[in-house]
Amino acid sequence: MPEPRATVRGELARRIIPLTLGAETLPRSVSILGDRTGQLITEPVTAVLVETSAGWVLLDTGHNPALVRDPALAERFYRGADKPLLATGGDPLEDTCHEAGVELDDIVLVAVSHLHSDHAGGLRHFARRATPVAIQGAELQHAMETPQADLELQGIFRIDFDDPSLNWQVLDGDTRIAPGVTAICTPGHTPGHQSFLVELDGAACGGYAFAFDAADLTENIDREIAPGGLIGGTPEQAISSIRRLKSEAAARGLVTVPGHDPYAWPALVDELSAEPTAPAPPAEPTAPAPPAGPTASPSLDPLIHGRPALVIVDMQQAGYLTSSGHGRYGIQQMPGFSDRIRRLVEILELCRHTNVPVVHLQEVHSRALDDFGRELDGAEGVHFIEGDAATSIVGELRPLATETQIVKRRYSGFFGTDLLDRLADLDVSTLLLAGELTDVCVHYTFVDAHQHDFHVRVIEDCCGGSTPQSHYAALDAMEYLQSRARCTAATVTAALISSDHERKGASS
Ligand SMILES: [Zn+2]
Ligand SMILES: [Zn+2]
Predict the structure, then answer these.
(1) Distance 164 CA to ligand 2 centre (A)
(2) Same domain for 391 and 337?
């Protein structure tokens, strides 16, 4: 038995769950001071859940989705700039925590690195709950004392945190805020920016130092370059914060994690999801060996192989009728259609931003009813008649003229269509499937794609079945064919961001 490190370093954190709450497309100069490449990069919006003996601690909170989605508020706060993409169609923080098995009520402490809108937008959840929110005094003072108009130009929105119900725990310098979690002052990016050291029990490394915006990218850390857009700080101060964080991390054997890196973040998500639950033995100080044998976690299989395409299956107007229970339109469909559409809109926008091809499948039948074949022999009634409003693709997902549209008369998108040729033209290897019904058209399209040797992923929270039971049974059947077939809007968002950068990296 190795001697427990806790005897030397105090109590350690138990588990880390990285959350990917969305993405933002920004000029590279926002992350790298003085960058003149003019490049745009898509960066993940990150937060971290830490399980400690005192309960769950949340580090950072992502965007306020209302300010992004409400057209009037978006106009006010984003002023025509590229709006951030949100990882889920609901509340990204609530949804991704829930998906990780943690409810917001379970969180005993929140800490914010700083008050930029991509970090402070979820604080409002904790006002009503009176959850303590740890922040450096210098950060809060800057945000409360700077005139609001100037603050908004800095990307700090007072609406996110100026709430008398928030239970601020104002810190003055480095502070151990929970067992295994220490806030470290890293000013420069903002006046009171803080990063977090998480000393982890049972990790191969000693844990992680989460830089957040003290270092957006790995490059900031490795080359000791200040992030761009410094608020009230100098490049020298930002660089000395990076150096300080690196040395604090090194002293404890922690891996330093940049806040917005499109490679490092998804890699960390993969690494932590593959972490064994039992404490690991101390690692050799060499590169970790790839896990082998049947015990290897299936999540090590990358979600995206080669070029991906988003394939949207039969997201047609009728869904609003059939899933709402008011009068049927030939087909029974589980509730929640509009939530699924909302989530899918975010994925569609991200695909368009990152040049991932999109294929729209649409089921259409002739008014003469002579092309239904055996489709009316089972539970389904007449549906998707040519020219009916209910047959059109929902307005939120309206195809662009440059996107592939395939009309089909049967369930599978491959049956009697040229989908296979079109996918070959696009040089696609991985299909990301979303749509309705999980147990019919999505399932059969999946099966044909599988038999044509594609990697297929089904974004399960963007799919609806004829019933919830059929939905889950079909997902299980697809997972039976390909491990890791089942995924969610949030994990696909993270994977799309990282594969976009791999492709850009490979082509530059
Ligand atoms: Zn920031
Ligand atoms: Zn940020």
Answers:
(1) 24
(2) yes
